[in-house]
Design the sequence.
């Protein structure tokens, strides 16, 4: 390894390549000494292996522990019938201890459905990973309050695309005095005769506040024209006016983030079926949901037109593929956190977008031209 091609990180023994490979990205390497012997190990690549600095540190520490254990522990072999391989006494005792601990935690786990138990354990790990970003969201909120800045986050997407779940995770630990969730119903007679944007403007944030719109004025771009809640002329006026409206908001200091949760047709059907069959979720299924699959093509046409015509430099769309709920929530949080340079940002966390989940508008439009699945 030529050290001239690498630079030290702020973590002792961890190096990263100065130049990123076009396909593989940057290379993480561990280099350290133990008992007068030098050890070097390639830990992985940022793109090929999707490794972050935090992952590299963990891999290096595991490698170090293996080296130390190998040299220090006497090799007294014990045959373990469960794993069918030779292990040391120390390793065997560790397995017995871990097995005991797991039984104490899980209790009578054999009476539980294995799939339910696996799902529950997976959620525990996911919740722990989410917390790193939720801590950052609190820092962001504190910064907005301190600087008296205003933020609007729009959550758009088809029915069952994961908007509500993402909003709940994003606001889970936030100070509820400084954020509001707005989910407007059908306009009343007075609102129908007002300027279209007026009923949304009255919910806009004051200084230091975040407002999250669970569906927004973009109802007029997709839902309303499909179900006949507005005329074609009203739809076209909206499509012509909305870009200038959003540019004015941004020009006046509003931080505007537009998220579109893009669920596939098959995954939407799976979620609908679950809602129908699960008594705890049946309340989520509405008459509009019943038509969503039948009207998939019409929604796709309006979605394509909306993304093409309303994506602007001052207020771009962020497409979040949401078939995997957990990954989509992580990416939504990253997008929000990357929108502001707030104080105390923890750069040990991975803020880089996952290219498989967080994709560009151009890529989404191209995919829609090839397939009707989005």
Sequence:
């Amino acid at each position: 390894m030529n050290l001239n091609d690498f630079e030290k990180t702020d973590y002792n023994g961890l190096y990263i390549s100065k130049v990123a490979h076009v396909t593989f990205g940057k290379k993480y390497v561990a280099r350290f000494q133990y008992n007068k012997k030098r050890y070097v190990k390639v830990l992985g690549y940022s793109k090929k292996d999707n490794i972050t600095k935090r992952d590299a540190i963990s891999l290096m520490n595991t490698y170090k522990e293996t080296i130390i254990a190998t040299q220090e522990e006497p090799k007294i072999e014990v045959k373990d019938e469960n794993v069918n391989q030779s292990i040391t006494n120390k390793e065997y005792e560790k397995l017995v201890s871990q097995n005991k601990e797991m039984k104490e935690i899980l209790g009578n786990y054999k009476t539980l459905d294995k799939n339910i138990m696996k799902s529950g354990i997976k959620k525990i790990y996911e919740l722990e990973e989410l917390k790193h970003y939720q801590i950052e969201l609190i820092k962001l909120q504190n910064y907005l309050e301190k600087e008296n800045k205003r933020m609007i986050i729009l959550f758009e997407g088809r029915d069952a695309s994961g908007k509500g779940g993402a909003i709940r995770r994003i606001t889970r630990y936030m100070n509820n005095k400084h954020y509001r969730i707005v989910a407007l119903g059908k306009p009343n007679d007075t609102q129908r005769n007002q300027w279209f944007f007026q009923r949304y403007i009255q919910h806009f944030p004051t200084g230091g506040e975040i407002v999250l719109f669970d569906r927004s004025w973009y109802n007029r771009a997709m839902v309303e024209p499909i179900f006949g809640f507005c005329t074609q002329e009203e739809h076209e006026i909206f499509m012509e006016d909305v870009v200038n409206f959003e540019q004015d908001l941004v020009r006046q200091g509003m931080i505007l983030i537009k998220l579109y949760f893009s669920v596939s047709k098959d995954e939407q059907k799976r979620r609908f079926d679950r809602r129908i069959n699960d008594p705890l979720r049946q309340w989520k299924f509405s008459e509009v949901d019943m038509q969503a699959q039948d009207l998939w093509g019409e929604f796709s046409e309006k979605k394509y037109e909306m993304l093409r015509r309303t994506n602007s430099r001052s207020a771009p769309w962020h497409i979040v593929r949401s078939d995997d709920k957990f990954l989509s929530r992580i990416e939504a949080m990253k997008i929000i956190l990357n929108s502001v340079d707030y104080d105390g940002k923890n750069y040990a966390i991975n803020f880089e977008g996952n290219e498989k989940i967080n994709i560009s508008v151009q890529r989404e439009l191209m995919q829609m031209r090839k397939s009707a699945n989005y």
Remarks:
- The chain has a mean pLDDT of 91.
